[in-house]
């Protein structure tokens, strides 16, 4: 392998989850006003799913962000 | 006819995706390609490409080990099995996986790792010699691309039924994406993407058990609904108490078949010798990480029924109630417009997931398909290059290449090669040139492997029965291979001739039993020991008998042939290998502690769902 260490996979995972989280969170906020025709839509699963993904992705991005050493 | 079928399936797709859902899927494809491109510049030697530089952490190797097995066919197939057979399907995740994963970690991994082999056929070469390696490698390479293609076709059919996508579009887009990212970044890229896919599979699929249990009124509410909805519903909710007789459970199997056929031979054969999964853990950076990787995988494997088996049970509980709603049937008896068992997971996804979460769920299915395909392709590229091309084909065209290649094959590719030739500039250049040649061969064999898989997918499209045969062929080889390898690792007296003839007769006997039942169905009662045995029981007993035959023949032939000197077995066999000391580790850092903890948890779970 080359001498410079590659970015950890956890950083890539964090980025993707953060991006998904933001998109799904926005959709979840819209769906609070216009709920989809799904079972248990009153529990706002899209909104809460977006929150979980954003927090999880954001945490991974922060913890595994590239740093100068 | 074909056009009409396509039109019918396109119109009858289960899921209608919104623009946001499609964007989520497209972002996923872009992400895996970006990872492959990023890792391309870091793949400059054969060891980088085929063994991910042997620098993976236990967590990365462990999650990849599990993700390579967690394909979407697995997700949808076992959800369907849980709908059909109930909680009995969980045996394939618990007793059918956990003991074998712990055995791999604690008993077998030291030999794979200390021998510095690059593959499972590579271990066969070191332990038994070239003929056994050739038999193992050719069977594995052949079966891997066939399985990959057939899985690809099955994926395309699912995408058509679930999403209304064109068959050719699904096959070409997914396979080209996998070919690009594996050819660019090699095993590192496959592993990184598998870890990503692991997260997506879990996060995308979790919505179903969470909301399904909420709707059903928790676990006790779900059990009450299943008992009310299904004839003999109580038998769908117990893992062991109905296994006393073939007649008492929906699967038509007894505890003996589950424990010895599934829990011992099939499970140990797959998890300890199938190079598709073993390749992930031999990339670990040190022996402790290589041992911890399957143990980490085992803990997550125990949790997988939550996203695979639970949806099947939720389907039994909520899709129909008091005689109303959707009743799923087997694919063999389904009439046009009827839903089959295989539809249970997509139906529940549509039931609970709105735009956004639906895209994530579909991405989880696609990620599952691609992780399985990438696992097959990267394992094929390694076995083809190191175990077929290098020892069998390359010397025919360049006999002078053999010594350098042989030096590398005895150990682990470039690391051993560079150490051997450090004193001689010409040899260094020659070894480097050889390594580059094999690196190039690895990239090309990845692409060719994908193309062969696509060809197989199209063959399967026209001959649906080929799927059954190839799945069976794959299982023929796994059980005897476990016998050959476990004897090789634990018994010094096993000889090269014993290993070869044991593997060959075990495989042929398994094929023989399959054909016997195929042409004389009544033979199933002889092989599976009961008139009430169902086809599911055939695999269990076929594997058990072929393993016994392999072991018996290996022992008999070994005693009839000269043993190998102990010096030749160092690093390969128990009793001839000095194990690295773990004295410096605290108790909670030792793989043995975590392995035993996994076994205790497994016992508790089985008692809970007895």
Radius of gyration of chain A: 16 Å
Rg of chain B, Cα atoms, Å: 24 Å
Q: How many strands in all of chain A?
A: 0
Low-confidence stretches of chain A: none
What is the count of DSSP helices of chain A, taking H or I runs of 4+ residues? 2
What this model shows, in words?
The complex is a heterodimer of chains A (69) and B (610). Chain A has 69 residues and is an all-alpha fold. Chain A has one domain (9-63). Helix content of chain A is 64%, strand content 0%. Chain A has helices at residues 9-33, 45-63. In chain A, helix 1 (9-33) packs antiparallel against helix 2 (45-63). The mean pLDDT of chain A is 89. Chain B has 610 residues and is mainly alpha-helical. Chain B folds into two domains: 2-462, Up-down Bundle (Sodium/glucose cotransporter); 467-577, no CATH class. Chain B contains 25 helices and two strands. Chain B has a two-stranded antiparallel ribbon with strand order 1-2. In chain B, strand 1 and strand 2 form a beta hairpin. Classes of the chains: A mainly alpha (69), B mainly alpha (610). Chains A and B meet through helix 1 and helix 2 of A and helix 2, helix 9, helix 10 and helix 16 of B.
Question: Could you list some keywords that capture this structure?
Answer:
heterodimer; A: 69 residues; mainly alpha; B: 610 residues; Sodium/glucose cotransporter; two-stranded antiparallel sheet; 73% helix; globular; disordered N terminus
Question: What order do the helices and strands come in, and which of them pair?
Answer:
The complex is a heterodimer of chains A (69) and B (610).
Chain A: H1 9-33, H2 45-63
Helix pairs in contact in A: 1-2
Chain B: H1 2-11, H2 19-40, H3 46-51, H4 58-67, H5 72-85, H6 98-114, H7 120-128, H8 130-163, H9 167-205, H10 207-216, H11 218-229, H12 255-273, H13 275-281, H14 287-303, H15 305-319, E1 320-321, E2 324-325, H16 344-352, H17 357-397, H18 402-410, H19 414-420, H20 425-462, H21 465-490, H22 496-519, H23 524-527, H24 535-560, H25 591-608
Antiparallel strand pairs in B: 1-2
Helix pairs in contact in B: 2-9, 2-17, 4-9, 4-13, 4-14, 5-15, 5-17, 6-12, 6-14, 6-25, 7-8, 8-9, 8-17, 8-20, 8-21, 8-22, 9-17, 9-20, 10-11, 10-15, 10-16, 11-15, 12-21, 12-24, 13-17, 14-25, 17-18, 17-20, 18-19, 21-22, 21-24, 22-24
């Amino acid at each position: 392998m080359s001498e410079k260490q590659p970015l950890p996979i956890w950083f890539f995972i964090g980025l993707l989850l953060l991006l998904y989280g933001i998109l799904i969170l926005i959709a979840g906020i819209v769906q609070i006003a216009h709920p989809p025709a799904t079972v248990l839509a009153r529990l706002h699963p899209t909104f809460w799913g977006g929150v979980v993904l954003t927090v999880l992705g954001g945490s991974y991005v922060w913890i595994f962000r590239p740093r100068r050493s | 006819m074909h056009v009409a079928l396509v039109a019918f399936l396109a119109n009858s797709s289960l899921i209608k995706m919104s623009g946001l859902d499609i964007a989520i899927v497209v972002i996923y494809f872009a992400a895996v390609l970006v990872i492959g491109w990023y890792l391309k510049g870091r793949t400059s030697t054969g060891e980088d490409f085929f063994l991910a530089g042997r620098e993976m952490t236990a967590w990365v190797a462990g999650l990849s080990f599990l993700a390579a097995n967690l394909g979407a066919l697995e997700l949808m197939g076992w959800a369907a099995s849980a709908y059909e057979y109930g909680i009995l399907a969980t045996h394939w995740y618990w007793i059918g996986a956990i003991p074998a994963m712990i055995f791999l970690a604690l008993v077998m991994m030291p030999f794979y790792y200390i021998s510095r082999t690059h593959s499972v056929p590579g271990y066969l070469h070191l332990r038994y010699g070239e003929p056994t390696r050739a038999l193992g490698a050719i069977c594995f390479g052949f079966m891997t691309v066939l399985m990959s293609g057939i899985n690809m076709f099955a994926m395309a059919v699912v995408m058509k039924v679930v999403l209304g996508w064109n068959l050719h579009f699904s096959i070409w887009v997914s396979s080209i994406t996998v070919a690009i990212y594996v050819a660019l970044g090699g095993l590192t890229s496959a592993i990184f993407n598998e870890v990503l896919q692991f997260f997506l599979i879990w996060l995308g699929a979790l919505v179903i058990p969470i909301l399904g249990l909420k709707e059903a009124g928790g676990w006790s509410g779900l059990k009450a609904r299943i008992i009310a909805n299904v004839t003999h519903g109580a038998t769908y909710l117990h893992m062991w108490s109905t296994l006393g007789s073939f007649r008492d459970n929906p699967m038509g199997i007894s505890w003996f078949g589950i424990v010895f056929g599934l829990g011992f031979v099939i499970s140990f054969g797959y998890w300890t010798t199938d190079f598709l999964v073993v390749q992930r853990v031999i990339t670990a950076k040190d022996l402790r990480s290589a041992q911890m990787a399957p143990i980490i995988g085992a803990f997550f494997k125990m949790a997988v029924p939550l996203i695979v088996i639970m949806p099947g049970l939720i389907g039994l509980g909520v899709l129909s109630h008091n005689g109303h709603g959707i009743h799923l049937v087997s694919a063999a008896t389904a009439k046009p417009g009827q839903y089959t068992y295989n539809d249970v997971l997509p139906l529940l996804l549509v039931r609970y997931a709105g735009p956004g979460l639906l895209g994530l769920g579909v991405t989880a299915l696609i990620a599952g398909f691609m992780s399985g395909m990438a696992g097959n392709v990267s394992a094929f590229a390694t076995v083809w290059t190191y175990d077929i091309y290098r020892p069998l084909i390359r010397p025919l065209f360049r006999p002078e290449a053999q010594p350098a290649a042989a030096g590398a094959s005895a150990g682990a590719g470039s690391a051993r090669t560079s150490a051997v030739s450090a004193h001689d500039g010409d040899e260094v250049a020659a070894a480097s040139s050889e390594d580059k040649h094999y690196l190039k061969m690895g990239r090309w064999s990845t692409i060719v492997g994908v193309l062969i898989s696509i060809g197989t997918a199209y063959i399967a499209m026209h001959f649906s029965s080929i799927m059954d045969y190839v799945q069976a062929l794959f299982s023929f080889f796994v059980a005897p291979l476990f016998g050959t390898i476990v004897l090789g690792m634990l018994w010094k007296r096993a000889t090269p001739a014993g290993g070869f003839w044991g593997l060959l007769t075990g495989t042929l006997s398994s094929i023989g039993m399959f054909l016997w039942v195929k042409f004389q169905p009544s033979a199933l009662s002889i092989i599976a020991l009961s008139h009430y045995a169902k086809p599911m029981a055939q695999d269990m007993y076929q594997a058990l008998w072929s393993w016994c035959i392999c072991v018996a023949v290996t022992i008999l032939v070994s005693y009839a042939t000269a043993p190998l000197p102990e010096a030749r077995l160092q690093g390969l066999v128990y009793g001839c290998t000095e194990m690295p000391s773990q004295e410096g580790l605290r108790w909670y850092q030792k793989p043995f502690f975590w392995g035993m903890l996994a076994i205790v948890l497994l016992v508790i779970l089985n008692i809970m769902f007895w």
